[in-house]
Give the backbone structure.
Amino acid sequence: MLDTKFIREHTERVIQNSSAKHAQPDIPGFVRLDERRRAIIQEGQDLKAKRNTVSDEIARLKKAKENADQRIAEMKIVSDTIKHLDEELRGIEEQMEHIALFVPNITHTSVPHGKDASANIEVRRKDGINPCEGEKGFRKDHATLAKEHGIVDFERGAKISGSGFPLYTGKGARLERALLNFMLDRHTLHNGYTEVFVPFLVNAASMRGTGQLPKFADDMYACADDELYLIPTAEVPITNIYRDDILTSAELTKKHCGYSACFRREGGSYGKDTRGLLRLHQFNKVELVQFAKPEDSYNQLELLVGEAEGILETLGIPYRTILLCDGDTGFSSAKTYDLEVWSPAEQKWLEVSSCSNFEDFQARRANIRYRPEPSAKPEFVHTLNGSGLATPRLVVAILEHYQTEDGRIRIPDALQPYCGFEWIGEK
RNA sequence: GGAGAGGUGGGUGAGUGGCUGAAACCAACGGUUUGCUAAACCGUCGUACUGUGCAAACAUUACCGAGGGUUCAAAUCCCUCCCUCUCCGCCA
C-alpha cells in the first residue's frame, strides 16, 4: 500500500507507475475522495471539540445543582451531526481503501522500463557448470526419468488429490527432504538466518498484510468455513510475524528462513508448462525473509540474491539471474530479480526463485515499524524476500543435468550426506 | 466442544459514567553528581490523523482487544466477535 500523502503529492507518478504495471486504479477519484475526507475530518473535529467543552460545562452545572437542560438539548443536535459526519467519513475511507489496495508499488529507479518479460535484463549467467556434459542424445526429460526410477508417482498423486499434487516415493521423497534440509542448513549455518517453522493456514489479515488479498483472492485455496487460507508461500506467515510490531533499530536487519508447503490454484494454466513437476498446486519451498532499515534494503537485496544463487552454485546447476522490467515486476515489489535454471529437455529457463525488495509497501499494509533511535518516532521497515529455493524445478534440473549415459542419476556431492545415497537407479 | 476468569501505554498494574490519555512501579532516554562494568537525584518518556508552520514545534480530534449500541458525556454500562488463561471432555 502506498502512503495516502504520497498519492496526493505524486499523483502523476503513481498513475504512470500503475499503468506500467498494467493496473488502472482510479487515482483521480482517490484524490477527490481524500479532499472530501479531510474536509469532513476538520468539521467533525471542530464539533467534537465543542461537544467536549460543553460536556465539561454540563458536568459543572450538574455538580452545582443547576439546570443544564438547555445545553444538553444543544449537544444532542451536535452529537447527531457528528454521527452523520462519522458515517460519511467511514464510507469515504472504505472507498479510498478499496482503491488504495489495488495501487501497485512504485518501482525503483534502477528497474528497466518495458511491457513484458522481453524487456528483462540478464545480469548474471553461470552455465558450463553442467557436471554430466552438454546436450547429448541420451538425455531424457525429468518426468520420464522420475517415472522410470519410481521417485515420483504422478498418477497416484492425482488419485489422492488431483493433478498437480505429486506423490514422492522412495528415493524421490528422500531427495526432496534432503534438498530442504540442505538449503535450511546453509541459510541458518552460513547465511545468518534464524529458522522458523510456520503455520500453513493463515487468516485474512495476514494475507492482506503481504498483498495477496484482496487482489489475488482467486489464486489461493481458502477454507471458507474457518476464514483461513492455505499459504501460497511462507513469505506470508513469516512477514506477518511482526505485523503491528515496533522493532528496535538494533535488531535490524532481521533475517528469517523457513520451510513451507506452498499451495497455489494456478487457475487456467493448463497447457504445456504443466508437465511433470513444472507447475504444481502443492510444492515445497524454503523462503528467505528480511526486515531491513530503508537505507540498507537495496544492499540487502543484492546479498539475498547471492545467497539464493549460492544454493545453485553448490549444487552445480546452470542458472541465470534476471532483473525484471517494471511491466514484469509484481504488484507489491519495487525491484525483483528472478533466478532461473536451465532445463535441457524443455530447452527453457525455469524460474526457481524470485527475490524482491518491497520497500515499505508490505510494512505499511502489515504495520511493521522500527525506531531508528531508541526514543525516535517509529518508521516503516523495508521488507525483502526470496525463494531459497523452491524444490520442484530444482529436482527437474538435478534429474536432467545429473543423469548419466547408463540411465542413472548421480546425487550432487553437497546433497549426498543428506540423501544417504549417491545414485538413483541401478547400474 | 462445555464451564469459569480475563484482555488498559515497551513491561507490570490501578482505575466501574464527567478535572483519566489514563495513577504507581519497572524499563528506556536526557541531565546533575560521586573518579571508576554501579548508585542517587532531577527531567523526558504512547500512537495516528487533521490543521497552522520552511522547520523545530504547536493546536484539535481519536485510540484502554475489535466492531456496534446507550448517553449531553464511555476505559468505565449493554450487545456481537476475536484472543489469552484455568478446569472438564476429546485427541496426534
